[in-house]
Amino acid sequence: MTGTDRLGPVAPAGLAAPPRRRLDRSRTAIARGIGRALAPLGGLVALVAVWHGVSATVGNATILPPPLAVAAALREMLVDELPQDVAASLVHLGAGYGLGALTGLVLALLAARFPLFEAVIDPLVEFLRPISAIAWIPIAILMFGVSQGVPIFLIFYASLFPIFVNTLDGIRRIDPRLVQAARMLGASRRLVVSHVVLPAALPAVMSGARLSLGVGWMAMVAGELVGAEAGLGWRILWHQEFFAMDKVMATIVAIGVLGYAADAALRLLQARLLSWAPDAGGGR
Known about the structure:
Mean pLDDT: 85
Number of strands: 0
Radius of gyration: 27 Å
């Protein structure tokens, strides 16, 4: 009996290679997943490091407090005034953004349906769209006083235009044959809009919704800074008057975290609604 016979039958090389290749691919996929998960942390660590370095260079915590001081202030605020300010800001955002997004969507549908209405509304939109919401703060204060009306109005104004422009553009890009096919099958106008036009334009609508949320969030902070009695923007001004710059920075950090969370939630909704569209679902 030879040495080969004592070892038993040897599996062909072609049968042993695939499991090793699958294991290598699995390890590569896991490594890439970990890398994608840790990539945002790298940017955050770099930002904190630069922040700490600049704060140490300035050497004045009143002007630029270090990250650890801001973290301590944020922990203190979490059990004190921050929850109330977050709730007030979310009320402003929900009312202003909801009204602005709904109005922009309805106007886009009307403009797509009636050419005369589009001819009237399009120049008005293009005239108002470049005007920043911040420019309307004095007029908003005169109209609503120092109240919730100021940030809600500014959020409404800022969030209206992105979703209007994106929705109208998405409707214009719909293949006319889809609408014609639905009509040939006997679909009513309402059915065509709800089952053909809106689903086909949904990727553009969701992109406009994300843009509207971003500009609406910025308008919210600006409006609360000067025209509200509660909210994260108002809290920044409150702490600035007492030179509590660590709490000012803590509030700014909270604004950034909440803005990121709101956009992440909208991206998750976008991915679920647009799972059929690989180029749009969850895209940035």
